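re: ur question from earlier - yeah i can do the single chain one, its not a big deal. heres the input i used so u can compare w yours
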Amino acid sequence: MHGPSQGDMAMLLLADSRLPAGGHAHSGGAEEAVRVGAITGPEDLARFLRGRLATAGLVSAALAAAACEIGSSVEEGSREVARWTRLDAEADARTSSPAQREASRTQGRLLVRTTRRIWPSPALDSLAAAVPDGAHHPVALGAAAAAAGCAPHQAALAAAYTSVTAPATAAVRLLGLDPVTVHRLLADLAPALNDAAHAACASLIDSVVGQENHHDWSALPAHAAPALDLLAEQHLRTEVRLFVS
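and the output i got, formated as tokens:
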């Protein structure tokens, strides 16, 4: 019986909410959804999580897988400025809400800062140099996954997973929900999480153009979530907030 691989262990660490990279401060829209009455209990939360996974979660998974693929090919001394900035621009184009863009870049910047200390690598160094103001979170997550020895599918799965665990954890704190009930909701999402990771990696194959295996990142999923955008903007104007986003 084979034990977990290096990539498996790294994926677990990257998806752990205890990673000191500021993820615990973000609710993924759940705080505002609770405030406006869109989430009042487990059934509402289950619908919110499925919707978030099918839109923002899938987009994040694809971006993370793409970033992992780039990061895995970065060598010592290589800057890869063009590829990093192009992928980060694709992430920016898929984030309609200015509030969400700011939150994503803040999380990305903190994640790169933390993971450069845990897994020093050319991938993270080159991303930090290419996007000094902070890459979007899924791009940073994919680069960190590459630095830690993960494959693109593992990066995609970590991104999909964190897209639902942050709002789930926030809902427990905001509504006093039974943590076991909420974890049951997350367990029920396992097939959908796996499907999202597979779809994200399939989109990488679809994005290959030319005989030199260059990628057209604009072919990555671009599923919109207008409700999440509106919640993010409303949350930014709310005076009393427990979470940053």
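The radius of gyration is 17 Å. not sure if urs matches, ping me
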